[in-house]
Amino acid sequence: MIRLFRERVEGSNVQLYGFKDENTNRIIIEPKYTDVNLKYGDVIAVELDGKWGFIDEETGREIVEPKYDKVKSCGHLIGVKIDDKWGLIERSGKEIANPKYEGVEWCRNLAGVKLNGKWGIVDETDKEICEFKYDEVFRDIHSKYIRVELNGKLGFIDETGKEVVECKYDDIRDFDEDLIKVGLGRKRGLCDDTGKEITECKFDDIYSLSGTDLVIVEKNDKYGAIDRTGKTVFECLYSNIEIKNGLIYTKSNGKFGIRSGKTGELLIPAGFDRIYSLYDCIAEVKNEGKYGYAVASGKFYESLTDLCKKLPEKILANDAELSRYKNAILEMIRSDINDANENDEREIRRSTKLANKCIAIITKRKLDYEKAKAKEEAKKEKFEKLKKSAIEDLDALITDKEDVIEVTND
């Protein structure tokens, strides 16, 4: 392997480049090149007397003598210019296309080439992949598709030349692995990777944020979310959105809330001065200068015991939900214990006592709820029996129903 070095020409400010053996430091090529470009993989572009050629990066052996006016990377190929025309060569120096094109561009694993004022795509053998009809092709190295322009509008084609997205947008770019971001004027929308528009261009911007399965959208300086089919998950209501630990922290009118990063489900409404942490369904918050706890209904509790005493009946009636709340409370207390240091023995005892008290409150409330529910069911059952008995007594008084004549006022 060789490495680059340079020397200043005595008596001038000119610097020339040469190459040494990387291991022995022995000079392989004396300083003679006026410029060097190292971005061509296993070959190095070198300039001598205003012309460009290529040497092997391992040995310094000349592969192509300096004879080109300009050189340009085109993926696996290299674009070379002589006079006003561009050709294509392999890195071995083998000519693939003689200088006949008006321009060349790197388009993924292919080459965009311009002929008679129009751009097309060719493969590594100079075989035409799509017809020469585009006004422009773009060097989007990391894109899944090739961005093209026709009549002032942008679209995508794939490496077979097939049009994935019709040239009808003012802006187009990869969004993520299977969505494409498109724009008309100042509005943005999304297409899937078949080119089907899943949401029209109606948003001011669209964002792909790590930590959420949703797509964040912006409209009139407010943020909302859609799913990957374009369906609205929540409207553009928030002045700011931030993703932390798989959760969407929202802000509206200076107040904070939380939504699920996976489904967008409202976990804590945006109504609190600050949110410190979330334990499944309960958040530690600050509200109007007071520290306490918040739940999905937006209610604020100054203490965990207050929360346990005021759990709504719909939570007490649902064993799964009640278990969620119970576990969230215990996880909060566990976190406090884990954060305690050797001087916090009293705090640990207090936390243990609090845990037992909370569970005792929830257990009693559950039992009271079930007793009340059983009493209500018994009352209802008693009434139904009374009603049934009354009907049976009335039926017994009617000896022959066919003799009963309905009296009318005719």
Oligomer: single chain
Low-confidence stretches: none
Kindly, what is the distance between the CA atoms of the first and last residues, rounded to a whole number of angstroms?
Answer: 118 Å
Q: What is the 3D form?
A: elongated
Helix content: 10-25%
The amount of beta strand, in percent, is over 45%
User: Structural class of the secondary elements?
Assistant: alpha+beta
Tell me the number of helical segments per DSSP (H or I, 4 or more residues long): 4
Sheet with the most strands: spatial strand order:
4-5-6-7
* Main pleated-sheet profile: 4 strands, antiparallel
Mean pLDDT: 92
Task: Describe the 3D structure.
This protein is of the alpha+beta class. Among the domains are: about 1-70, no CATH class; about 305-410. It is built from four helices and 35 strands. The strands form nine sheets. It has a four-stranded antiparallel sheet with strand order 4-5-6-7, with no helix packed on it. A hairpin with a 2-residue loop joins strand 28 and strand 29 (about 245-250). Helix 3 runs antiparallel to helix 4. The longest helix is centred in the C-terminal third of the chain and has 53 residues, at about 345-395. The N and C termini lie far apart (about 120 Å).
